[in-house]
From TrEMBL:
It is found in: Membrane. The keyword Ubl conjugation does not apply. GO terms for biological process: regulation of neuroinflammatory response. It is a single-pass membrane protein. Gene3D superfamilies: Immunoglobulins. Belongs to the CD200R family. Coiled coil: none annotated. Residues 1-93, 102-175 form the Ig-like domain. It comes from Centropus unirufus. The lineage of its organism: Eukaryota, Metazoa, Chordata, Craniata, Vertebrata. This is MOR1B protein. One of its GO terms (cellular component) is external side of plasma membrane.
Length: 176
């Protein structure tokens, strides 16, 4: 999320038309087209962040600037040329890194939270804990995972929470 994504499409000799069709998981189909004989481009139902990376008569690459969760979905590039019809398909998955929040509850137990990540993060502790993480889904597709450290009868002063996520791992320590 927040980065640019670039999807390539193979150019063919004697190309007459190219259409990128974007099927977002929660939105209206968007099309970005190019007609070679008129050297004309067209966009229908697309946000300003979706466009050709370069001139389509030279490069058929599509760019999504500042990718958001709403951009997740299927992207197809259809090329019509004198020697046939060519199709390339992509599935764009958007990763949202969670915010790591580490605090102490009213009883002095460390509580680790991986807030609003996509997909859900995994939480572990440097020392083993019999804690069961709890997940809360949000309307925008993100998930908050929380875990409370429960000690095994030993006094632990400094605790470290580790959050594992495809967008990057994080760790933080706290004294409760």
């Amino acid at each position: 999320v927040g980065n640019s994504s670039v999807l390539t499409c193979s150019s063919k000799s004697n190309m007459t038309m190219v259409i990128w069709k974007i099927y977002p998981q929660d939105g209206v189909v968007c099309t970005v087209g190019y007609r070679a004989d008129l050297n004309q481009t067209n966009k229908i139902n697309c946000s300003d962040s979706v466009d050709w990376k370069f001139r389509p008569d030279q490069d058929l690459t599509l760019e999504i600037q500042q990718v958001g969760i709403a951009d997740e979905g299927n992207y197809t590039c259809e090329v019509v040329a004198t020697d046939g019809y060519f199709l390339e398909t992509y599935h764009l998955t958007v990763l949202v890194p969670p915010r790591l929040i580490l605090s102490c509850d009213d009883h002095g137990n460390p509580v680790c939270e991986a807030a609003t990540g996509k997909p859900a993060a995994q939480i572990s502790w440097v020392l083993e804990s019999n804690s069961t993480p709890k997940e809360e889904g949000h309307d925008n597709g993100t998930v908050t995972v929380s875990s409370k450290f429960t000690s095994h009868g030993t006094d632990v002063i400094n605790m470290t929470c580790i959050v594992s996520h495809p967008a990057g791992n994080q760790s933080k320590s706290i004294v409760c």
